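Continuing the batch. This is chain 6 of the set; chains 1 through 5 are on the previous pages. Same settings as before, nothing changed between runs. Recording input and output for traceability.
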Amino acid sequence: MPLQDAVTETLRGMRFAIVGLEPQEASRVRSALDLAGAHANVLDRASAHPRLNSLAMFDACMIDVSHTESEGASADLLAQQEKPAILIGNNGEMRRLAPIIASPTREFMLRPWTEEELILRAFRVLRHEEGHESRGVQMSRAAPLVVLADDDRMAELLVSSILKSNGIGCQVVSDGHEALETVRKLKPDILLLDVSMPKMDGFQVLSAIKNDPSTMGVHVVMLTASNAENDIVRGFSLGAEDYIIKPFHPHEMVARLKRLLRRRKAA
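Output for chain 6:
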């Protein structure tokens, strides 16, 4: 596969947290990632405190290490969250953070940097993580199974068609109670769970699944029309592995689900 195609495939739909960059530089990072099909959100340092697990919803992060008072915070953030990361700073700062940069899931850029360099470094840290997750693991011949819980008939048809065309089995249910019972019975690889459903809403189903030892290992992806931060944080706090916002791009949805399937096979 040509490098450009591999970069596009790896970065499409990935979410990056931008921590500590000045507004102008953060804007450059966001623009470069947008062009590569990725998404980026700017976090202030308070919201990116390592104990808050605020990076759970992101695949990787870009962190400015150029402020002396923040060097310790950056090290703590990376050490405790263990997210793939690109550090941005100068030579002196990188030498002080050498033990962290030595990790294969860490990259660094010295200012001034170019958009092309940023994209390639983002590709490298994410590609290494994918390789680490699947290394030494033989994929089962059986098709993975996703339970789709959504009471929107059109959404059911669209998503189930996309999954089946990508070799992923799909069992459709239309209310929260049925979703919970189906997960307990089938033990699928992933539950793709709409938030707004009859009988039990998605958060209630998620909580029940993650508090049941027999189902807590099932990966849950929230499927929702809401991008409200409170809903996203609530989903992750209850144990969701990811979320997808409606309307979604089919390629992004498939990429995110396949990423979770690789992690499940590697576990």
